[in-house]
């Protein structure tokens, strides 16, 4: 992504060092954000967020579609993109995406995918002390984590093979991109117990792939959508910690796309 060449400064006057350990993601120091290739038209299939940060407003003023904003240490992280394509189930395919780190309205660093690498950058989310980057596919998957190092450096690292959650009460192995039968086996191996689903809508449930999943032993599948990308949800417990996994696809064992954790055992 072409942009200005001036180097951003840390609060002590020195530029932070930047490095990426993910081949498909690059990070560079940058002080000026370029205009979008073409202004993004609203509503861009519902993927855009209303800007609240100075950096987000700046990106929008330059024609970019702002996807998300997150407070991350001393920075405001803004993910934005140049292309959005509507798809099934109110989803959106995103392309020409980037993540920018701002101090106020001052751009500090930019994370992007090199032109020869087909990796659309989409949403961002704070996970513990990391800023997680997701791709822009219809079922977003994590592609890297941004970390702020003790010396002030900004680093892009691969997704960890497992994550400690809720202050160390439980460990969640890497689940995204794996079939749900492999996911549940890995979770059980880490001490998670599947929670047998309570079927609240028997008629709707019967029209989904959920009954077939239960026949194959996936007793925790709670519900599945019947159209579009076919999302299913599954619940697990370890002590008081609750884990919900979401899958996409309509195969015998759909693919896990995301998960969320509740540390107090409540939905």
Describe the structure concisely for a colleague.
The protein has helices at 54-61, 180-189, 202-206, 210-215; strands at 18-20, 26-29, 65-72, 75-86, 92-103, 106-112, 121-127, 130-135, 142-148, 154-157, 162-165, 170-173, 193-194, 221-224, 231-238, 241-248, 255-262.
Structure description:
- It is a single chain.
- This protein is mainly beta and 267 residues long.
- The chain has four helices and 17 strands.
- It folds into two domains: 142 residues, no CATH class; 100 residues, no CATH class.
- Helices cover 11% and strands 40% of the residues.
- Strands 1-10-9-8-7 form a five-stranded mixed beta sheet, with no helix packed on it.
- It is globular.
Present the secondary structure layout.
Elements lengths: L17 E3 L5 E4 L24 H8 L3 E8 L2 E12 L5 E12 L2 E7 L8 E7 L2 E6 L6 E7 L5 E4 L4 E4 L4 E4 L6 H10 L3 E2 L7 H5 L3 H6 L5 E4 L6 E8 L2 E8 L6 E8 L5
Parallel strand pairs: 1-10
Antiparallel strand pairs: 2-6, 3-4, 4-5, 5-6, 7-8, 8-9, 9-10, 11-12, 13-15, 14-15, 15-16, 16-17
